[in-house]
């Protein structure tokens, strides 16, 4: 007798909370001890796999024509992935006068160091490049850089027009 699999219970990995959360942990680990807000992490989640578009190392993901639309749907996924990573103690939320931002927890670096595949190593390289070039920019300068480097994009990716406030 053939086994029937209920596909509604199958958890996908591509663009899942787990995949997105893992990228967030890698980016936050590269940024440590800085904090990054949700808007900046949303931009960085896209940019870390498309660094070639921003003048960095070769992109990890292919240059699909509609990839810029990913920013429109990515914010909620990034938010949900950060919740998951907080539950497993890889990300800390930090509240201050600017709002809530996120930082790699003490457990993040050992977790990231266990990732040794070729893809993981390339992702870490892209995250370091991204942080080195964009993490300390003001929200306005980051928006200018994204517009300048990726002029075909709309940098307003959320319905509330949120722009990153940065972090600390």
Q: Would you kindly provide a written description of the structure presented here, covering whatever features stand out?
A:
The chain is mainly α and about 170 residues long. It is built from six helices and three strands. The protein has helices at about 15-30, 40-45, 70-85, 110-115, 120-135, 140-150, and strands at about 35, 90-95, 100-105. Strands 1-3-2 form a three-stranded antiparallel sheet. A hairpin with a 2-residue loop joins strand 2 and strand 3. It is globular, with a radius of gyration of 16 Å. The protein starts with 16 loop residues before the first helix and ends in a 19-residue tail after the last helix.
Notable traits:
168 residues; mainly alpha; 3 strands
Sketch the major β-sheet: 3 strands, antiparallel
For the termini, the CA-CA separation is 59 Å
- Give me the oligomer status: single chain
Element order: H for helix, E for strand: HEHHEEHHH
Q: What radius of gyration results from the CA coordinates? A: 16 Å
Based on Cα principal axes, name the global outline: globular
Backbone structural class = mainly alpha
Please, what is the average pLDDT?
83
How many E-type strands? 3
- Arrangement of strands in the largest sheet: 1-3-2
Set out the fold topology.
Blueprint: H1 17-31, E1 36-37, H2 38-47, H3 70-87, E2 91-96, E3 99-104, H4 108-113, H5 118-134, H6 139-149
Antiparallel strand pairs: 1-3, 2-3
Helix pairs in contact: 1-3, 1-5, 2-3
């Amino acid at each position: 007798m053939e086994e029937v699999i209920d596909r509604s219970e199958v958890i996908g990995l591509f663009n899942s909370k787990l995949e997105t959360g893992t990228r967030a942990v890698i980016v936050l680990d590269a940024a440590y001890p800085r904090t990054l807000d949700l808007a900046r992490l949303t931009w960085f989640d896209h940019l870390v796999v498309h660094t070639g578009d921003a003048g960095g190392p070769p992109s990890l993901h292919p240059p699909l024509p509609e990839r810029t639309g990913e920013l429109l749907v990515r914010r909620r996924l990034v938010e949900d992935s950060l919740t998951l990573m907080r539950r497993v103690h890889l990300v800390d939320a930090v509240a201050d006068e600017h709002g809530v931002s996120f930082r790699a927890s003490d457990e993040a670096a050992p977790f990231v160091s266990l990732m040794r595949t070729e893809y993981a190593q390339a992702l870490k390289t892209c995250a370091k490049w991204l942080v080195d070039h964009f993490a300390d920019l003001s929200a306005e300068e980051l928006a200018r850089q994204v517009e300048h480097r990726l002029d075909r994009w709309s940098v307003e990716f959320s319905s509330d027009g949120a722009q990153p406030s940065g972090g600390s």
